[in-house]
Amino acid sequence: MVFRSSAVRGPYTPGPVNPILTQRQLAENRPNAISSTGHADFVETQAGEWWAVFLGARPYADDMYNTGRETFMLPVRWVNEWPEMLSGSETVPYVVKRPTLPAQPAPAVPTHGNFTVRDEFSAPALAMNWELIRTPREHWYWLDRPHGSLTLLPRHADFAPTGQPSFVGRRQEHLVASATTSMTYDPAVEGDKAGLVAFQNDLHYYFLAVARVGGQRVIQLEQHAGQNTNVVLASAPLQGSAGAPVYLKIQARGARYDFSYGTRPGEWTVLQANADGTILSTKVAGGFVGSMFGLYAYSASP
Q1: pLDDT digits (tens, 9 = 90+) for 101-123
Q2: Where are the beta strands (DSSP E) in 45-158?
Q3: Comparing C-alpha atoms, which of 281, 232, 282, 239 is closest to residue 259?
Q4: How far apart, in Å, are the Cα atoms of 194 and each of 29, 158, 179, 225?
Q5: Pairwise CA distance, residues 95 & 58, whole Å
Q6: Using 50, 70 and 90 to split pLDDT, how confident is the model at 181?
Q7: How would you class 101 by CB atoms within 10 Å of its CB: exposed for 0-12, middle for 13-18, buried for 19 or more?
Q8: Could you give the C-alpha distances from 269 to 89, 123, 211, 223, 247, in angstroms and in order?
Q9: Residue 226 in contact with residue 188, Cβ under 8 Å?
Q10: What 3-state class would DSSP assign to 27?
Q11: Cα dist. 223→98, 167, 235, 257, 278 in Å?
Q12: Are 178 and 251 within 8 A, CB to CB?
């Protein structure tokens, strides 16, 4: 919606055509739909062009999306001194011609398009694309034990609303994506576990974990789909020595997620295919922040 005034405190006059950014009148099953658009900021470039930067989402079906609300751009045109962005049946496009501005150097970590990012944790600090959950009150991760690895201290802290778990993650940025890691871990007692997480919030996540169950070292997949709905979807004995690497992989395919493991590089065993990814969507789990892929370690001992 757009309003204008000659004074900050008003009065304000509404634009002749409102809203100027909406997709509500369009069919939900349209190709490459963009939904939940809003919160636009207008910018005039050095070249005199006007653009709007705003939020939107890319649903895979039934207005479900796991990547949260993302940043979009559209050119702004001025008609009779009023801004216009979309009209009639115009849709928010996936691609637009960029503003007439000098090209900037590519960022160290890609932020758009199709890409692969690999982190050997060889820098003295975590890269800026890694995130923690809530403010850490103690130091529980290291990048020099040994150098070129990330070491997490398993702690008796889970994803409860007030907890600060041993979790390091990054945003899922694509509807079709994968995350893999190599991990060395030997759970000491029953209930200890560590591995790879597809995480939306403290009640909605998948945990592909190396754990100790019945005295045996296993690989298992936990599904957390809301209050009191925690289940182990799949489990298998984990072969090999406790000091050998275990390889973990999560593959996202819109509404479906696959979970695999291995004891040799590139040799994958599917533990669970076609798991329900809609539990990680905004429509089911709530919130607009989207899902994350993360590394998580938990100790059953306080």
Answers
A1: 998 998 888 888 899 999 999 99
A2: 50-57, 70-75, 77-79, 82-84, 141-144, 147-152
A3: 232
A4: 40, 11, 15, 19
A5: 13
A6: very high
A7: exposed
A8: 47, 32, 17, 19, 10
A9: no
A10: coil
A11: 41, 17, 12, 12, 12
A12: yes
Half-sphere exposure of residue 24: CA atoms within 13 angstroms, side-chain side: 6
- Full-prediction pTM beyond 0.90? yes
pLDDT > 70: percent of the chain? 100
Identity (one letter) of the amino acid at 252?
Answer: A
Q: How many Å from the N-terminal Cα to the C-terminal Cα in the chain?
A: 52
The answer to whether the CB of 296 falls within 8 A of the CB of 133 is no
Residues 6 or more apart whose CB falls under 8 angstroms from that of 167 comprise 132, 133, 159, 197, 199, 294, 295, 296
In 13-85, which residue ranges form alpha helices assigned H by DSSP? none
- pLDDT one-digit tens code per residue, 225-282: 998 889 999 999 998 888 899 999 999 999 999 999 999 999 999 999 999 999 999 9
Structure tokens at 206: 């998948």
- 176 touches 254 (CB < 8 A): yes
Please give the pLDDT value at position 239: 86
User: H or E element: which one contains 282?
Assistant: helix 282-285
- Both tokens assigned to 139: 């130091």
Alpha-carbon distances of 180 from 68, 116, 250, 294, rounded to whole Å = 21, 11, 7, 10
E runs forming strands in the chain:
3-4, 13-14, 35-44, 50-57, 70-75, 77-79, 82-84, 141-144, 147-152, 166-171, 176-183, 193-201, 204-213, 216-225, 230-237, 246-253, 256-264, 267-276, 292-298
User: Which value, to the nearest 10 degrees, does the dihedral of the CA atoms of residues 164, 168, 170, 172 take?
Assistant: -80
- The length of the chain in residues reads 302
For the chain, domain boundaries: 3-84, 141-298
State in words which class domain 141-298 has.
mainly beta
